[in-house]
Amino acid sequence: MESVTDAERATKQQKKEADMISKKMQKAINEQINRELYSSYLYLAMSAWAELQGYKGAGTWMAVQAQEENGHAMKFFRYLLDQGATVELAAIQKPPTEFKSLASVFEETLKHEKFVTSCIHDLMTLAKAEKDYASEILIQWFVTEQVEEEASAAEILGQIKMAERSPGVLLAIDRGLGQRKAD
Ligand SMILES: [Fe+2]
Ligand SMILES: [Fe+2]
């Protein structure tokens, strides 16, 4: 009787290990959680800076973006737990407190999102190499999301650059940014 139970337990354990994502993937996703949380922190810092400079709309836009980044981190967090993998939260880097201008805020946003895109692509490369189909599907969502993130940062940057010498237009753009609502 005892040996049957042991055998069953061993089979179950083997199955669990086979289902679980690799240690390498686990580590890579944990690192991505940290990046998404840093993104949230960075946009929160930008939000505070913008509001203090009188760009209330950009402040709102960045606060919503910070929330969205938190949501990205939680998507990966949930996935690790659903896979029975370990969540390992690391220290979050300190974001800057000062920015040169509203244009530079969105320039830095675009630059940062391009970096995040490259990290997501690295995750996809790993998932494909490991034939990790479940992770691949999750990461696919982020590949699409990054296209949107880069496009919206580039669009806003373009508008701000065109309006740089006309405060009235810049104010109108800022008011438009303030319309953004959390999803
Ligand atoms: Fe993100
Ligand atoms: Fe987004």
CATH topology category name = Ferritin
Number of structurally distinct domains: 1
Element order: H for helix, E for strand:
HHHHHH
Helix-and-strand structural type = mainly alpha
N-to-C CA distance: 55 Å
The name of the CATH architecture is Up-down Bundle
Major β-sheet annotation: none
Percent helix, as a range, is: over 70%
Query: Uncertain spans, ≥5 residues at pLDDT below 50?
Result: none
Ligand identities: fe (ii) ion
**Total DSSP E strands:** 0
Strand content: under 5%
Question: What is the H level of CATH, i.e. the homologous superfamily?
Answer: Ferritin, core subunit, four-helix bundle
Number of alpha- plus pi-helical segments: 6
User: What integer is the average pLDDT?
Assistant: 93
CATH secondary-structure class = Mainly Alpha
Q: Roughly how many Å is the radius of gyration?
A: 21 Å
Task: Give the CA-based shape.
Answer: elongated
Describe the overall structure:
By secondary structure, the chain is an all-alpha fold. It has a single domain, classed as Ferritin. The protein is built from six helices and no strands. It has helices spanning about 1-20, 25-50, 55-80, 100-130, 135-165, 165-175. Helix 2 (about 25-50) packs antiparallel against helix 3. The radius of gyration is 21 Å and the shape is elongated. The mean pLDDT is about 95. The structure holds fe (ii) ion (2 copies). One fe (ii) ion binds near residues 36, 69, 72 and 116.
Task: Produce the secondary structure layout.
Blueprint: H1 2-19, H2 23-52, H3 56-82, H4 102-129, H5 133-163, H6 167-177
Helix pairs in contact: 2-3, 2-4, 3-6, 4-5
The protein binds fe (ii) ion (2 copies).
One fe (ii) ion (FE2) is lined by residues 68, 145, 148-149.
